[in-house]
Amino acid sequence: MSSERTIPFHTISGRPIERLYTAESNPQFNYDAELGDPGTFPYTRGIHPSGYRGKLWTMRQFAGFGTPEDTNQRYRELLAAGATGLSVAFDLPTLMGRDPDHPLSLGETGKCGVNVTSLADMETLFDGIALGDITTSMTINSSAPMAFAMYLVLAERQGVDWNALSGTIQNDILKEFIAQKEYIFPPHPSMRLITDIFAFCAAHVPRWNTISVSGYHIREAGATAAQELAFTLRDGIEYVQAGVEAGLDVDVFVPRMSFFFDVHSDFFEEIAKFRAARRIWARVMRDRFGARDERSLKLRFHSQTAGVSLTAQQPMNNVARTALQALAAVLGGTNSLHTCSLDEALALPSATAATLALRTQQILAHETGVTSAIDPLGGSYFVEHLTRSLEEEAERYFDTIDGMGGMIAAIERGFPQREIAESAYRFQQDVESKRQVIVGVNEFAAGTTAAIPVLQIDERVAEQQLAKADRVRRTRNKVAVTRALDRLRRAAAGTENTMPALLDAVRAYATMGEMCDALRDVWGEYQEQAII
Amino acid sequence: MGAMGAMGAKRIRVVIAKPGLDGHDRGAKVIARALRDAGMEVIYTGLRQTPEQIVAAAVQEDADVIGLSILSGAHNSICRRIMELARESGLTDVLVVVGGIIPDADLPALKDMGVAAVFRPGTSMQEIIDFIQIRLAPEGANAAGAPGR
Q: What ipTM did this prediction achieve?
């Protein structure tokens, strides 16, 4: 045997890789049980019988910054350029249910997304955009019910029937407790808000995707590929269980659930992760929950290239990283994709960088030929071995978490948080020791990089949004606001669905901070035990 | 390592804080652990701390270093406020360092406020440890330093 390099051969998640995979790598491999044809159970090869020959993935680029006026302008440009879907990035005050004048909003208003304080801002954000003609994805979680209520009231005002509305709210609170930490209320009332939305949408907004169960933030916080897969799908199980316990039929609400994964740098491991995710979900829904509708069995997912893999040093290298990650997402059968911009280790994307990111997807779709054959890697000894191995690792995590009494119990004892923190630290040590090479950072770092132009957010956004909130507070019917917030408190304290009370509060122009404060009055705020 | 570092030197005390509304704490936690493994005394404030809370923690903990992790773009306003409060509280020789998503254009203003260093994505843990240890080396430990007070 010829000599090999002496580096450790492992994935970026630390999974050891053999030198060669053969038929023996996958004992008792059964095509029908493990793969099935595309569009058939267990959907390992994809949920559509025609793959990308039928429909390409949706190219959905996440955008939002500054005032609603600024972002409305960007949306109109996107729609004029042929986009049919929008994806709203909110700022932290909106995401955390704080008005711009709260002390913790200092410096945050309009910074990492658009500020939406009341219905008046939602009206501006979609000014001139007919909600019946587009699909809108809103990346918002603990305050998702309020933002969604604003969107529904806006549709009402535009004369658009809720039956015709289509879009997605992320609405995934478990990964907030686990990773991104944008939680407000404790776990149980947070879960109740989510099942309220499942029930409300099943009855009134049937085409809305009620949740996007997200591994992205779990991975970005440092999880391995297997941890991302396991914790995300176990979160999905927790939501389905909560829906069932709230008296809903799985085949009514599960078809409206979708998923969101990271697509990181380790090419084959990522492809295997997506294939394993579809297979696990199909089996879990059939065997654990007795789902019969095939739409409940099919895992649909959005993916986003790994923001955490982007480097501030030699930022042009990020274009290559993102392109390769996007290719892995496509070979893994993603249904929708966001490609990160090269400048995201420095700031929010500039318009030029965002366009290049979109062009990267278009080149993949139209120039590389990778969309012609469905699941082109299906049957590869290596990919099938990795798929099986990731599935087994995820199932071991399921057993551990089930043994703790479910995901909420596991979160309360800090289990997923600790697992992720360990992986993050191990990865950083691998980078320090150069066991993991990062080009331009710990190797090939010679030379200087010219500064690249980045997007600057006008510091006056906070003043403008504050002035607007003041105007709204002065001109609205104060009695109606007080009455609506009281009704919201009563709904929260009792068992009735919270959505009708939220809709009333929104119609009265209650602010995001006021609505969340009303719920804080009843439920309190969650405080985590910080784990280092 | 025990309560005292090598040669009986006082251990460096670091407050790692997450100001503002952002919850992305991977960097803060990795750095907290790396500094602790390097022998420093690390106090992690947890999430969503106001500038007032952070400065109060630094006073109470007799911190030598305040490490701020800010990824949301709020760094200018937050750092300005923290530096003002630190001055008002008499924390004149505490070393304030910032890690996060910070554009080039904001670096001079942060330096002018008195931020000692900005560490951006890709910075090695060792670089941060070395920076703190060199800046806090007892005076006289390097040839150019003045004698101790």
A: 0.88
